[in-house]
Amino acid sequence: MQTLTIDFIMSLDGYGAAEGWPGWWGLEGPEYLKWLEDLPEQDHPILMGATTYRVMSELTAGGEEGTDVLNGVQKYVFSSTLEEPLTWQNSTLIREDAVEFVRRLKEESDRPLRTLGSVSLCRSLLVAGLVDRYRVVVFPVITGATGQERIFDGYPDVRLDLVEARTFDRRSQLLEYMPTVLDRPPLG
């Protein structure tokens, strides 16, 4: 069975995006972009929802630095609102239940899987016990006034065991964990 890694970028206060801020909050830096370029999982299939698909396909079409590597990667897009054909190359529209599809894909895929953004999709996959790794890059900004897409709202309690940590460009933090969804708080 293949593994599934959830990938998020976020502000220090837990937002996945912010109105009026550029991609990566304008703080992507050369070390971070090099890490993205050198990721061994660059060719691993990506799971995403409709909102992430719309945003990322527009960024890629607009030439946003660091996004062109996604063009050649297989993308599974879970949506009931998008219509075929999807215009971003190597994108497959999935209308069936995401949890069941991903459970089957983990068994059938010849490569590990990963997500890109997609807050509610990732929450569903985590609750279903399908997530093996949880990786976030925390950018050094607080976007309390303009932040959008609070990543962890609606999540269950989860214990995270750190497996990797790294600093990029003396400002952004990579944190990679193995998650365990808890039935109740430890003292409950």
Features:
8-stranded mixed β-sheet; Riboflavin_Biosynth_HTPR; 10 strands; alpha/beta; 188 residues; Dihydrofolate Reductase, subunit A; RibDG_C
User: How large, in whole angstroms, is the Cα Rg?
Assistant: 16 Å
Per the CATH scheme, the topology name is Dihydrofolate Reductase, subunit A
Oligomer: single chain
CATH architecture: 3-Layer(aba) Sandwich
In whole angstroms, the N-to-C terminal distance is 33 Å
CATH class: Alpha Beta
The total strand number stands at 10
Following the backbone from N to C, one meets helices and strands in this order, namely: EEHEHEEHEHEEEE
Strand fraction equals 25-35%
Q: Please name the fourth-level CATH homologous superfamily.
A: Dihydrofolate Reductase, subunit A
Uncertain ranges:
none
Number of domains in the coordinates?
1
Instruction: Identify the overall geometry.
Output: globular
Which structural class matches the secondary elements?
alpha/beta
Per DSSP, the total helix count is 4
Please list the strands of the largest sheet in the order they lie side by side: 5-4-3-6-1-7-10-9
Pfam family, one: RibD_C
Protein name: Dihydrofolate reductase
Domain Bacterial bifunctional deaminase-reductase C-terminal: 3-171
Organism: Microbacterium kyungheense
Describe the structure.
- With 188 residues, the protein is α/β, with parallel strands linked by helices.
- The protein has one domain (4-181): Dihydrofolate Reductase, subunit A, CATH 3.40.430.
- The protein has helices at 30-38, 50-61, 98-108, 119-127; strands spanning 4-11, 15-18, 46-49, 75-78, 91-94, 113-115, 133-139, 147-150, 158-168, 172-181.
- Strand 9 (158-168) and strand 10 form a beta hairpin.
- The longest helix has 12 residues, at 50-61.
